[in-house]
């Protein structure tokens, strides 16, 4: 949904794990959907190309909008449910659904202008309202929440890349207009609201909610002593294709960790070439 999101309907049975090295040889850069499709080739709802979320034939169940805010989530969730209901190849009540929600980064970029509208309280309100709606409507669903990106780390790109100063002043002016300490306190407040999803109301017999903390890193990876700018897109704000590849592997890895042991990865020790495989 808002930000970067993907929702697909999984098969009832997941194929046995095969050698993931085959997938690595076939494709150098891939996304989380590619990993899921490797283990469940008959997924429904995947995007079929580049287009807007309004184009159902292209977007499928992907309701993500570039520049989206947390306040967009409730309406996106309703549209998602409508699309799942209308899909003739989906058994809504018996097939498992995986919903990934990555939202809040754009809220952080606007929080200095209006904390009431874009602050942690509204972030929590809209996110919880959305997950409750999905819980009440969609049985057999796993909701994976990715914390908002530490957008303040983008400032690290500016000293050696002057063009990023102008681009980031347009895409995320709050990282420059707020003291870093104040911004980090607000980001921490956003993250703390995610603890609520461990509550029983978000964990039922056929519905689960989890947070993928592995992606919640507060620094940019380095290449030697320099920033690895391959992680940042040319607009100095969004993830590059390579970053999407790494994020996909982090989210996948988190799925096999106990909730309480999930934590931001360390770039110095993270090994994206090592894969976790389903035990059965």
TrEMBL record:
One of its GO terms (molecular function) is phospholipase activity. Pfam families: Lipase_GDSL. GO terms for biological process: phospholipid metabolic process. PANTHER family: LIPASE_GDSL DOMAIN-CONTAINING PROTEIN, PHOSPHOLIPASE B, PLB1. This is Phospholipase B1, membrane-associated.
């Amino acid at each position: 949904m808002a930000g970067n999101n993907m929702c697909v309907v999984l098969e009832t049975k997941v194929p046995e794990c095969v050698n993931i090295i085959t997938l690595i040889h076939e494709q150098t850069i891939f996304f989380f959907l590619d990993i899921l499709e490797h283990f469940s080739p008959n997924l429904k709802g995947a995007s079929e190309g580049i287009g807007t979320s309004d184009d159902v034939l292209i977007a499928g169940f992907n309701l993500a909008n570039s520049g989206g805010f947390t306040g967009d989530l409730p309406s996106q969730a309703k549209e998602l449910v409508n699309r799942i209901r209308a899909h003739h190849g989906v058994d809504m009540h018996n097939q498992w659904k995986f919903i990934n929600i990555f939202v809040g980064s754009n809220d952080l970029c606007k929080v200095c202008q209006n904390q009431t509208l874009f602050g942690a309280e509204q972030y929590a309100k809209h996110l919880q309202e959305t997950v409750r709606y999905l819980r009440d409507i969609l049985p057999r669903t796993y909701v994976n929440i990715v914390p908002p990106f530490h957008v303040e780390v983008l400032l690290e790109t500016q000293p050696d890349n002057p063009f990023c100063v102008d681009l980031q002043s347009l895409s995320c002016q709050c990282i420059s207009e707020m003291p870093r300490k104040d911004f980090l306190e607000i980001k921490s407040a956003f993250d703390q609201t995610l603890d609520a999803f461990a509550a029983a109301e978000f964990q039922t017999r056929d519905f689960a909610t989890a947070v993928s903390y592995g992606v919640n890193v507060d620094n940019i990876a380095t290449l030697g002593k320099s920033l690895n700018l391959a992680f940042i897109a040319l607009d100095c704000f969004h993830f590059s294709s390579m970053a999407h590849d790494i994020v996909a592997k982090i989210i996948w890895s988190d799925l096999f960790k106990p909730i309480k042991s999930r934590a931001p990865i360390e770039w110095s020790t993270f090994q994206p070439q090592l894969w976790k495989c389903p035990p059965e």
